[in-house]
Specification:
Length: 260
């Protein structure tokens, strides 16, 4: 029964996902400079994905002392396995790093500006408040809105809603044309793009397949046969995908302006 619900959900979300896959943004990315502009806005999505992941781990497992068993052991296993892969994967040099740290490394290699994102994280560490840190940051508007949406769900949403945007509204929508463009750049200037290509390849290998299946199982476990929860999963997943479109719209406008 839950498989039928997942199939129905995927059919409902398919038109919005198609808008993301076919977004004009990808046709505007033609050079290393364009890739850097993309990364400077997209890095926020990589970071808040990690924050969403840790929020789910806090809800679904015991992360405090003394330890008590929390929820289903199967769900604990699913989220913990995803955390291991996302928080301590192996980078291109065989060193353990989170996917966010790998992305920052890729930005540094490509010449993209990491200072805005790192300044925001510094402010967040000082203030302990996401909204205040955003207000005092230099994040682009599309990145601000994306993070604000995610943290609204983290702070106020139920755990099945958090699991929904983690599973259905996130990072597995990378069109083949984008990958082909990165491949061309990799052949031309490997010393500038190798780490970004590795990140994307690793992302497709781990996040887009194995972790995606684990995340779907997690949503199934959390929703069970509860009709209201499945409706809420559909609504919040669609809203999350719309935020992805807004993020892409913002990057697209930057690319158009840069290439005039």
């Amino acid at each position: 029964m839950t498989k039928e619900r997942i199939d129905t959900l995927n059919r409902t979300l398919a038109p919005i996902r198609e808008q993301i896959v076919n977004h004009p943004l990808y046709h505007q990315i033609k050079s290393l400079d364009d890739v850097c502009i993309f990364m400077q806005s997209h890095v926020c999505a990589v970071w808040d994905f990690m924050s969403l992941l840790k929020s789910l781990q806090n809800h679904l497992t015991c992360t405090s002392v003394p330890w008590f068993p929390v929820g289903s052991a199967q769900t604990r296993f699913l989220i913990n396995e995803i955390v291991v892969g996302e928080e301590s994967d192996i980078d291109i040099d065989g060193i353990r790093k989170s996917h966010f740290e790998m992305y920052i490394d890729a930005m540094n290699q490509s010449g993209a500006d990491t200072s805005v994102m790192l300044h925001f994280l510094q402010k967040l560490a000082q203030l302990g408040d996401v909204q205040k840190a955003i207000e005092q940051s230099y994040l682009p508007q599309e990145s601000r809105e994306f993070i604000q949406f995610t943290f609204e769900v983290i702070l106020k949403g139920a755990v099945h809603q958090q699991a929904a945007i983690f599973t259905f509204g996130r990072e597995d929508l990378i069109p083949s044309m984008f990958m082909a463009m990165v491949e061309v750049l990799h052949h031309k200037i490997p010393e500038k793009i190798t780490k970004f290509k590795y990140y994307l390849d690793r992302h497709i290998e781990i996040d887009g397949d194995h972790h995606s299946n684990l995340a779907i199982q997690m949503v199934e476990n959390l929703c069970g046969e509860d009709e209201q929860k499945w409706r809420e999963v559909e609504e919040i997943s669609a809203a999350s995908l719309q935020m992805r479109i807004k993020l892409w719209d913002g990057v697209y406008q930057k690319l158009v302006f840069a290439n005039i």
